[in-house]
């Protein structure tokens, strides 16, 4: 966490602007004195009970596990209403047990709902900062840094934030390929280092993109691509890997097929393979 910031408002504003959202959060943390940090973005609204609910939940975790190493989030609603219905529905569906399984698909704890002990931020050295006009996904980087330190994730299934959507959001300025590259690197560090081999479910655009982003070492670990499309399966090979029908899947699997696009067919296909255990031998990257 930066300690070399100027005390005058003008100096802080200049430094924060240059260092992006991560720099702004680091300045705010350095100016605060509390043991518990509850984040809120300037354009969002928080429910009156949000601080007490998150603080109490953190204290219960700390008392039960004798550890402060946890990130906590909550449910939210979008404003304007209906601006991102699929995004909102997905996040509202997540429970604490789902956090790790979907941690490489999206930030499972939305930044405006985030809370943690100060020690969590101290341990990982603060938020990643941009520079020279570049933007970084400071929330995803925080998540993976936290998990690499053995951190836990908690979701409070209670609406505590009104999360505003607008075209000037910083997250809207981050490219899809950049965000995927951050997620893939996190997946390599946190999961693939423990797998000797795995399959990629999805021989389409996203499966190909994920494969290309893997290190050469992890590309060698890919044993097959899985799909349901007979045209793709008839091609037999992709990146010198066999394309197989998903019914022949052998865990572990990195799933690179978009959710909520097939009236539930894809999700039912995943559940039809009893050996798959989300968060252990099945992870979603798309």
Low confidence ranges: 1-17
Biggest sheet statistics:
6 strands, mixed
What is the H/E order? HEEHEHEHHEHEHHEHEEEHE
Strand proportion, as a percent range, falls in 15-25%
As a whole number of angstroms, the C-alpha radius of gyration is 20 Å
Look at the structure and give the mean pLDDT: 92
Distinctive features:
286 residues; alpha/beta; six-stranded mixed β-sheet; five-stranded mixed β-sheet; 11 strands; globular
Task: List the topology elements.
Blueprint: H1 9-31, E1 36-38, E2 45-46, H2 50-65, E3 70-79, H3 85-93, E4 115-117, H4 118-124, H5 138-148, E5 152-164, H6 176-190, E6 198-201, H7 205-213, H8 216-221, E7 222-227, H9 230-235, E8 237-238, E9 241-245, E10 253-255, H10 265-271, E11 282-284
Parallel strand pairs: 3-5, 6-7, 6-10, 7-9, 10-11
Antiparallel strand pairs: 1-4, 2-5, 3-4, 8-9
Helix pairs in contact: 5-6
Descriptive notes:
38% of the residues lie in helices and 19% in strands. The chain has 10 helices and 11 strands. It is globular. It is an alpha/beta fold and 286 residues long. Residues 1-17 have low confidence and may be disordered. The protein has a 6-stranded mixed beta sheet. It has a 5-stranded mixed beta sheet with strand order 1-4-3-5-2, sandwiched between helices. The longest helix has 23 residues, at 9-31. The protein has helices at residues 9-31, 50-65, 85-93, 118-124, 138-148, 176-190, 205-213, 216-221, 230-235, 265-271; strands at residues 36-38, 45-46, 70-79, 115-117, 152-164, 198-201, 222-227, 237-238, 241-245, 253-255, 282-284. It starts with 8 loop residues before the first helix and ends with a strand. Helix 5 (138-148) runs parallel beside helix 6 (176-190).
